[in-house]
Please model this.
Amino acid sequence: MHAIDYLIFVIYMLAMLGVGFYFYRKNTSSEDFYVSGRSMSSWHIGLSVVATDVGGGFSIGLGGLGFTMGLSGSWMLFTGLIGAWLSAVLLIPKVSRLGHLHKFFTFPQIFSHFYNARVGLLAGIISAIGYVGFTSSQVLAGAKLASATIEGLDLQWALIIMGAIAVIYTSIGGLKAVIYTDTIQWIILIAGLVFIGIPIAYHAVGGMEAIKTTLAPEYLSLKNVSWLQLLNWSVTIIPIWFIGMTLYQRIYACKSEKEAKKAWFIAGLFEWPIMAFMGVILGMLAKVAASQGMFDSITDVASMDSEMGLPVLLSTILPVGLMGLMLSSYFSAILSTADSCLMAASGNIVTDIIETFYKKNISEKKLLQISQIVTLAVGVFAILLASQMQNVLELMLYSYAFMVSGLFVPVLGALFWKKSNAKAAFWSMLLGGATTISLILSGNKLAFGYSLPKDLDANIFGISISLLTFIVLSNYHYKKNKNGI
Model:
């Protein structure tokens, strides 16, 4: 990159840190830090939600899907639209009222409210583990982009630099800093894609004629996806809208139920078709460029990670100045998700774990300091975890799957089923999450040489075990209590 590109990029990063320091001076309580004083409007929240959900992992991951399968990769985010709108109709009316009435900060507090503290603690642990992994996936996405576009920067140093920036402004500024930076970052990303990335890449590869000539016909079809892949995406992504800690924090942060529902409808529409097609189109253009030999002097295309196609394309085609702007756009997406996930993990650890064991009253000033320290510590651990992983989408979906299989069924039971009880919730969480992780680690292999179908996501089996456990134990204890046994 040219010195001008570096200057633009550095100015952008300093601006993000500046927002964090600004809100550091504004935060006076843990309520300010974790739920923005419960005063945010629908557009700020809506743009923050879509920036968080379609952040660096999905931006880089969507590019990888466009590189390998074309336009059909956009269906992954269609499940995001379904999840957003379903949760707006079914979840927000219940959660928004409870959150404001009981001054909730976190998602697992819903479990403590409907079940008991033991169930809430387990939910907090599962959510914290999942969001630490998700934070790591975003840091890894940023590092991949940086190492591919900044000459001489290896992946490990990129991890340290990207992680440090996200961790610092999040740990000092809290959720309000996250939401305002998310809004800025999302606008920068959209502007970068619409006015810089797509037009220049389209022209560089030779336009539609070159695309049709280079790519197989299925790349330009929306049918190049199996029902099994759609099922796996749906089971992994739709439920996250009902159990995502980052989403509950934003529901609580909205000043009313009406504002929260509006924010969710805004987020869903921007996820699909807008962000979905932008991501896969850029991935397709990277595939065309690679097939034309544009990357031959930079990397070995035959062995190149598909997720690296988009970063390499940008570093190849963009002129001085625009490279810095486009790089800032993608780092915007990455940071907008990393900061939100970091806030979620921190909130789980402080509110759902530390405060559960530490029974003494903690002053607001002390609690705010603890929150900032924990956020910093979680961020450092996430960077270390990212250094041990290679695939962004894989790490992200693993984290999703672990949370979904453990938490989805019990939260639906709490909100919509009168027979639900604490024991059913506890064991369905434990067995559902454990099933998914065990299957992922074993490659869907069971004991005694038996294996489950490899094409089915492990999360499907985890949710099934969770649901079966929940129904059996709920009915058993309901009948037991009804009969006075």
Summary: The first helix runs from residue 3 to 26. The chain has two domains: 3-392, 417-485. DSSP finds 20 helices and no strands in the chain. The mean pLDDT is 83.
